[in-house]
Design brief:
- The complex is a heterodimer of chains A (326) and B (324).
- Chain A has 326 residues and is an alpha/beta fold.
- Chain A is built from twelve helices and 14 strands.
- Chain A has two domains: 185 residues, Rossmann fold, CATH 3.40.50.970; 128 residues, Rossmann fold.
- In chain A, the strands form three sheets. A seven-stranded mixed beta sheet of chain A has the order 3-2-4-5-7-6-12, with helices on both faces.
- The radius of gyration of chain A is 19 Å and the shape is globular.
- The model of chain A has no long low-confidence stretch (mean pLDDT 97).
- Chain B is of the alpha/beta class.
- Chain B folds into two domains: 181 residues, Thiamin diphosphate (ThDP)-binding fold, Pyr/PP domains (Rossmann fold), CATH 3.40.50.970; 126 residues, 3-Layer(aba) Sandwich (Rossmann fold).
- Chain B has twelve helices and 14 strands.
- A seven-stranded mixed beta sheet of chain B has the order 3-2-4-5-7-6-12, with helices on both faces. In chain B, strands 9-11-10-13-14 form a five-stranded mixed beta sheet, with helices on both faces. Chain B has a two-stranded antiparallel ribbon with strand order 1-8.
- In chain B, helix 1 packs parallel to helix 7 and helix 8 packs across helix 12.
- Chain B is globular, with a radius of gyration of 19 Å.
- The model of chain B has no long low-confidence stretch (mean pLDDT 97).
Chain lengths: 326, 324
């Protein structure tokens, strides 16, 4: 059946379907129940599943993730929501020291099948403490999976896979995209596997690896470059950990040029790891330097104009690609 | 000149700065009466008293949060996190407040504070007392990140960090606190933040490293020398800002960079250095950029000797680079 859903609606459907399928799936976080989530991702779940499975928590991120670890250890499948990715810094110890390590520490006796959903709000004029995109931190915490959907369809399929995964998954959504547009999302059940990148557009001249919000910018840039006779392959990373090097490297072998575009500050971002992998495993295929397009190494500016300057966009991608092929 | 350990050099830096400037305050778990679990703050409580050497509760968030308040009000706090692994308890204070206060206040406030933390493996500390979390902080704009590898640098860098107007995360490689000794001048000197140290000159391969791995790299370089491979070793000393000029210089010279660190490979600091080289200096490369790092697993207790990069693994990488 054809129908169109927004990013938020697709996520809501994923949660609802998984909660119907498996009563161990529970949801908790700040304002997820009565209010249906500040961005309406959990809308209607309290009404359908009741207060034992959809739980409003205090404003205490360490408690939210800590309780999720406990619930997961005892056999539930919690999906905890952290309202802004910035607030994950308060729960980092629970995530990094406990969730990520318990399987390893217990010699495989324990497992922690939880999902921490969060969103970043870059581009919404939310200031330096409500806009940050920091998935790279959590790659340094082996034991976690890190998923970064860019489209409604992918968001639904990836979230369902994350909930069914036996290990902890950090699921980072882009707040700016929640209600921005709709696309076809299949009504029948489907899963999108974790750990696979997706080639969103085929091309021959330059590979652009993009993450989350920036995937749409990359596709727009590719369209504009195509009109000028430059053929761009756009890869949506989708999962950062485990990272699908194979898809990226196969593309670089074909195009011999790589641009990586994402929303974090540049130093130490996901783009660094992608660049490092290609420079380690496919150096001989490169015809030009690897280009990273990130935000500058500074806090996110509050001024709307400065924030727009701060962000990677289609114009910047077009410029970078043009320079590489020119 | 006195030959002292890295831990003693830290102690000397703290003592001299506290004598010089009464705004310098030391605080942390067991730093006062106990003198620190690694004895880096030994004797400070006796000399400077409980108002300037403060034993705190076990609350990392409070330790760094209070340090920020003190720094904003004009003091120069040096907060200790007992093991770098515990720094996540104070992560929000560091990332959301300490790193951003200068920017958020439009330059009206700054946070001249130092957070010291022993880090790294090699002491049979298991997975909660052996980690190397430096990559979290190089990916946080507004911080400086420093890691010394010698007693001389430890003292000179710590003095620079205390005098810096911005927050500095100062990671100390605990496995060499005592095992590494060196000449350290008494009295005032500084080692500038952001400048690397060329440990050893060579022409075939560049080992780019920091912390305790400097010694593994030196050992591997010596072995390689015997096999006719000339290896340069660069000790970065500062990770943020890092000495890009020196990295480019050594890459231009050898064309074969290898980055060595203890932290997991994926998205570790080596990724940033590799990406930096691949962006700026790709035409100088004679071999792929190789990273020798911890594995992408939690830090193992019984297998830590396999997890940590060592002479053998670094030597393998050197051979891979020259035979490419």
């Amino acid at each position: 059946m054809e129908r169109e859903l927004s990013f938020a609606e697709a996520l809501n459907e994923a949660l609802r379907e998984e909660m119907r399928r498996d009563e161990r799936v529970i949801i908790f976080g700040e304002d997820v129940a009565v209010a249906g989530g500040v961005y309406k991702v959990t809308k209607g779940l309290l009404e359908e599943f009741g207060p034992n499975r959809v739980i409003d928590t205090p404003i205490s991120e360490a408690a939210i993730v800590g309780a999720a670890v406990g619930a997961a250890l005892m056999g539930l499948r919690p999906v905890a929501e952290i309202m802004y990715m910035d607030f994950l810094t308060i729960a980092t110890d629970q995530l990094v020291t406990h969730a990520a390590k318990l399987r390893f520490m217990s010699g495989g006796q324990l497992k922690v099948p939880l999902v921490v959903r969060t969103q970043y709000s870059l581009g919404r004029v939310h200031g330096s403490q409500h806009s940050q995109f920091y998935p790279a931190w959590f790659l340094q915490s082996p034991g976690l999976k890190v998923v970064l959907p860019a489209t409604p369809r992918d968001a639904k399929g990836l979230l369902k896979s994350a909930i069914r995964d036996d290990d902890p998954v950090l699921f980072v959504e882009c707040g700016l995209l929640y209600h921005r547009y709709k696309e076809n999302v299949p009504e029948e059940e489907y899963l999108i596997p974790l750990g696979k990148a997706d080639v969103k557009r085929r091309g021959n001249d330059v590979t652009v690896v993009a993450v989350s919000r920036v995937v749409r910018e990359a596709l727009e840039a590719a369209q504009r470059l195509d009109e000028r006779g430059i053929s761009v392959e756009v890869i949506d990373l989708m999962t950062a950990q485990p990272m699908d090097s194979e898809t990226i490297i196969n593309s670089v072998k074909k195009t011999n040029r790589l641009v990586i575009a994402e929303d974090s500050v540049k130093t130490g971002g996901l783009s660094a790891e992608i660049a490092a992998r290609v420079a380690e495993e496919a150096l001989e295929y490169l015809d030009s330097p690897i280009v990273r397009l990130n935000s500058p190494d500074m806090p996110v500016p509050f001024s709307a104009k400065l924030e727009q300057e701060y962000m990677v966009n289609a114009d910047k991608i077009v410029d970078a690609v043009s320079k590489l092929v020119g | 000149m006195a030959v002292i350990s890295l831990a003693q050099a830290i102690n000397q830096a703290l003592r001299e700065e506290m004598r010089r400037d009464d705004r310098v305050i030391v605080m942390g778990e067991d730093v006062g009466r106990r003198g620190g679990v690694f004895l880096c703050t030994e004797g400070l409580y006796e000399e400077f008293g409980p108002d300037r050497v403060i034993d705190t509760p076990l609350a990392e968030s409070a330790i760094v949060g209070v340090a920020l308040g003190m720094a904003i009000y004009g003091l120069r706090p040096v907060a200790e996190i007992q093991f770098a692994d515990f720094i996540y308890g104070g992560f929000d204070q560091i990332v959301s407040n300490i790193a951003k206060i200068r920017y958020r206040s439009g330059g009206q406030f700054s946070a001249p504070l130092v957070i010291r933390a022993p880090y790294g493996g090699g002491v049979k500390g298991g997975l909660h007392h052996s980690q190397s979390p430096e990559a979290y902080f190089i990916h946080t704009a507004g911080l400086k990140v420093v890691i010394p590898s010698t007693p001389y640098d430890a003292k000179g860098l710590l003095i620079s960090a205390i005098r810096d107007e911005d927050p500095v995360i100062f990671f100390e490689p605990k496995r060499i606190y005592r095992s590494v000794k060196g000449e350290v001048p008494e009295g005032d000197y500084t080692v500038p933040i952001g400048v690397s140290r060329l440990v050893r000159e060579g022409s075939d391969v560049s080992l780019i490293t920091y912390g305790a791995m400097v010694y593994e790299c030196e050992a591997a370089a010596e072995k390689a020398e015997k096999e006719g491979i000339s290896v340069e070793v660069l000790d970065l000393r500062s990770l943020l800002p890092f000495d890009g000029e020196a990295i480019i210089k050594t890459v231009r010279k050898t064309g074969r960079p290898i980055i060595v660190h203890e932290a997991p490979k994926i998205c570790g600091f080596g990724a940033e250095i590799a990406a930096f080289i691949a962006e700026r200096e790709i035409l100088s490369l004679q071999s792929p950029i190789i990273r020798v790092a911890g594995y992408d697993t939690p830090f193992p207790l019984v297998h830590e000797h396999l997890y940590l990069p060592n002479e053998r693994r670094i030597l393998d990488a050197i051979k891979r680079a020259v035979s490419f």
